[in-house]
Amino acid sequence: MKLGAFSVSLSVKDIHLSKAFYEKLGFVVFAGDLEKNYLIMKNEDTLIGLFQGMFESNILTFNPGWDQNANNLESYEDVRQIQKHLKKEGVSIENEADEATTGPASFAIVDPDGNVILIDQHV
User: Fold this and answer.
1) Burial of 57: CB neighbours in 10 Å, binned 0-12, 13-18, 19+
2) CA 10 to chain centre
3) How many whole angstroms separate alpha carbon 33 and alpha carbon 39?
4) Number of folded domains in the chain?
């Protein structure tokens, strides 16, 4: 199964302090909007999302249809195909993607330790 680009989405208390900290580690702003309290920061192929006040805990994020530079891929597994496969495997789905639609959609799952995994397709 191909899940697409991977990033860690961090729930931060102060986006300005977090931005400055990750810049010291060599990350640069790749996308997002500081005024809307979210940034995507990049260091080589590593992506970290900083989100202030948007969710409670950190999230592992996969983006089907994107590479690590947020470029659309020619070929990828649609989020709905991934969801169907996981359902068949007995994985409980939260916030299911509507399987009757096409294009952007997302769903979430939770691993055995309570870590949220977001499958978030933008294409």
Assistant:
1) exposed
2) 10
3) 6
4) 1
- What would the two tokens of residue 47 be? 């992506």
Cβ neighbour number for residue 108 with a 10 Å cutoff: 16
pLDDT band at 73 (very low <50, low <70, confident <90, very high): very high
Q: Calculate what percentage of the chain has a pLDDT beyond 90.
A: 99
> How many whole angstroms separate alpha carbon 42 and alpha carbon 122?
18
Give just the sign of the alpha carbon dihedral 65, 120, 88, 90. Answer: positive
Q: What's the CATH number where 102 sits?
A: 3.10.180.10
Count Cβ atoms within 10 A of the Cβ of residue 63 and give its class: 0-12 exposed, 13-18 middle, 19 or more buried. buried
Q: What is the DSSP letter of 83?
A: H
Q: Which domain holds residue 105?
A: 5-121
For residue range 3-58, what is the model confidence (pLDDT) as tens digits? 999 999 999 999 999 999 999 999 999 999 999 999 999 999 999 999 999 999 99
